[in-house]
Amino acid sequence: MPYYDVAVIGLGIMGSSALYAAAHMGLTAIGFDQSPTLPHTQGSSHGQTRIIRQAYFEHPDYVPLVHRAYDAWHQLEQKAQSPIFIKTGGLMMGLPQSSVVSGSIAAAQKHHLPYEVWTAKALRARYPAFTLGADEVAVYEEAAGYLLAERAWTLFFSLAKKYGACIRHGVKVRGWHLAPNRIQLAVDDEIVEVNRLIVTVGPWIQQIWPKVPVRVERQVPFWLDSPELARLANHPIFIRETPHSAAQIYGFPYLPGEGFKIARHHGGVEGSIDTLSRTVTDADEQSLRHHLHFLPAALRAPVKSCTVCVYTNTADMHFIVGRLPQSNGRIVVGAGFSGHGFKFASVLGPLLVEQAYHSQLLPELQLFAPQRFA
Question: What single string gives the DSSP state of each residue in 36-57?
Fold first, then answer.
């Protein structure tokens, strides 16, 4: 039967990065995904763009990791000889005490990151499209921007193949058996043996690890289009926390041919990956527009396109990266990326492979220890 040093189950952005990392390290590697096509639109990795930023309001401890992610994305760009990171600057907007504003400032101050704080009036002088309340502010971070998401995802596949990895899609890993010194995977009707296993299956993690403390949340990003929005092609990425509901709305500069991407971060319907609706409704649109008065051009612009994606959230919104319980240290899980993991894929892929060969949790991953939910 076939044997590999490392197998990766789930080839979204995290799994494809891990597969490439394993192959690049000289390990024999194989990746499995149940989707008949790659990339696909059923999980959390599809779409053209993802925000990347350094003044990380979710927790200051992410900052060293996001610095490494920036470096890794630049290295990937050099290999591809094609841009992946587009620097636009970033605006974190809301009341001074909001988590988006206060958390960004706390992270920037702890890690000595350059930033500016603008009043609502100063913001409007620079970017007239934004209309904040008089008591709101904007934190400006020059280093922020966005990643060309599907270009990065596709590149991980091509580089993994270049370095000898095997990719099998349209197949299902139905289970595994922990044998001495190896793992036997039941893949459709055959057995594949591996030394280490990395599991990055996104919202399907509940089917593999039923006790994992995650919740699956439905999200609907929209692309709007109008001549007015087309003038925002040189605007920064942004996240605004609304003063009264604490809803977080994020968006990107206008991209010709794609439109103006804008969405709510969290606040979606929760359920299982098998029951969440993939149909976008008028209620989805109105739920977003309710929060767009700070950006009148978007409030009145028609919808060009929309899609459904999913978040896999932990209770504290921090990731889960570490060894699967009762796996003899041979199985590593990356899960619960809670809607803000994509930007870290360039560094978490290699760290997942490294963790698979270490008995203790790596220092860089302490914030994400699965044991915190024990």
Answer: SSSS-SSSSS-SSEEEE-SS-T
190-199 and 331-335 beta bridge pairing: parallel
Inside any domain, residue 259: yes
- In the DSSP assignment, the letter for residue 259 is B
User: DSSP E strands: which ranges in 242-281?
Assistant: 248-251, 260-265, 270-271
State residue 47's pLDDT score.
85
Does 38 have pLDDT greater than 90?
A: no
Q: Domain containing 34 — which CATH number? A: 3.50.50.60
pLDDT of residue 43: 79
Task: Check if the beta carbon of residue 233 is closer than 8 Å to that of residue 255.
Answer: yes
d(CA 31, CA 200): 10
- Pair (301, 343) in one structural domain: no
> Cα separation of 237 and 296, whole Å?
16
Number of other residues whose CB lies within 10 A of the CB of residue 27: 20
> Residue 176: its pLDDT value, please?
95
Query: What's 241's domain CATH number?
Result: 3.30.9.10
d(CA 297, CA 111): 35
pLDDT surpasses 80 at 374: no
What are the C-alpha distances in Å from 50 to residues 24, 92, 131, 297, 344? 25, 15, 24, 22, 11
Q: Write phi, then psi, for 74 (nearest 5 degrees).
A: -65, -40
- Does residue 225 register a pLDDT over 80? yes
Say yes or no to pLDDT of 302 above 80: yes
Please check the confidence at residue 311 and state whether its pLDDT lies above 80. yes
Which residue in 109, 121, 116 sits closest to 144, CA to CA?
A: 116
